[in-house]
Amino acid sequence: MSICFVRLDLGAFSEVVLAEEKRTQRLVAIKCIPKKALQGKENNIENEIAVLHRIKHPNIVSLEDIFESTSHLYLVMQLVSGGELFDRIVEKGFYTERDASQLIQQILDAVKYLHDMGIVHRDLKPENLLYYSMDEDSKIMISDFGLSKIEGSGSVMSTACGTPGYVAPEVLAQKPYSKAVDCWSIGVISYILLCGYPPFYDENDAKLFEQILKAEYEFDSPYWDDISDSAKDFICHMMEKDPAKRYTCEQALQHPWICGDTALDKNIHESVSAQIKKNFAKSKWKQAFNATAVVRHMRSAVAMVTEPRSFPQTPLPIPVWSSLQTT
C-alpha cells in the first residue's frame, strides 16, 4: 500500500511512524525495524510477533499486519492516540480513587486474558499504558510486548528482565518466576496512581533492589491519609513478597476495591498530579505511540508530511522468521 507518514518515535533499534493508507484514510502506527539491527536478536522479534498474533483484546494494542522490504521489517500496529497515562491524569481537573480503580480493572482484565493464554508481559509500567483516544471516557491500552513470554509446557522463566522499580522480588532474587510478576507490577502501578510517587525509590540501584527484595514500602502521611483502607488492602495483596500468596488477576478482580463500592469519590487530583510532575519528569518518559498532536493535525498540516513511501504489497506469512535474511 502507498502511505504518507510522520515520525512518532525514534528508538535505538527502530523507528515508529504514523501512517495513513491513502485509499481508506485509515491511520496506523508502523514500527520500522532495520534488518541489520536484528542480527543476533531474531529470537526476540520472533517471540514478540508470536505473542502479538495470538492476542485480541479491547485493552491491548494489536498487531494488524507484517511486511518486509530488502532492508526492513514493518510491524503495522493499531494506532492509539489518546496519550500516556500520566499525561492524562495531570491534565484532569478531577481525579479520584474510583478513577484509579476503573483503570486498574481494565488492566487486570487484559492481563488475566494474557495469563489465561499462558502469556506473561514481564514489563508492565505506566509508560506502556496508553489511552486509545482523546475521549474523556477512553479505554486504556497495554502496549510493548518486547519482553513478553509464552509459557511452554514444563518451561521455567528465570531471565532477569523488566524495568527497575516495577520488577518483582523473585526476579531480582534470580529465582524461577511465573505470571505472578505481572501482578506485582500492577500493584506498583496502583500505588503510584493513588499517590503520584513510586513505592520503591533510590538513586542507587543496589539500594533500590534491596527495598524491593524486602518488599519494604509505606503508606506515607499525608499523601495516603485520604486513601481508603480498601485501596491499601488491595495493594498489599498485589505487592505480597511471596508470589504464592500474591493475588492473581482473577482474585484481584474480585476485590471490593475493584468490583465493589469501596473506592472513594474524593478528589485527589491536586496531590497526585503534583507528585507525578515531581517524580516522573516528562524527559524520563517513553514517547512511542504518543501520536495525539500528530493525529489531530495530520490531514490539515500538509507541511508535516514527507514524500509518500511505497510499501510492500504482500503481507508476510506467519511464521516467517526462520528464513529471515539479514543484510
From TrEMBL:
EC numbers: 2.7.11.1
Cited PANTHER family: SERINE/THREONINE-PROTEIN KINASE
InterPro entries documented for this protein: Kinase-like_dom_sf (IPR011009), Prot_kinase_dom (IPR000719), Ser/Thr_kinase_AS (IPR008271)
Species annotation: Neogobius melanostomus
Domain Protein kinase: from-to ranges: 2-258
Name of protein: non-specific serine/threonine protein kinase
GO terms assigned for molecular function: ATP binding; protein serine/threonine kinase activity
Keyword Nucleotide-binding assigned: yes
PROSITE patterns assigned: PROTEIN_KINASE_DOM, PROTEIN_KINASE_ST
Keyword field: ATP-binding, Kinase, Nucleotide-binding, Serine/threonine-protein kinase, Transferase
CDD domains per the UniProt record, alphabetical: STKc_CaMKI
Cross-referenced Gene3D superfamilies: Phosphorylase Kinase, domain 1, Transferase(Phosphotransferase) domain 1
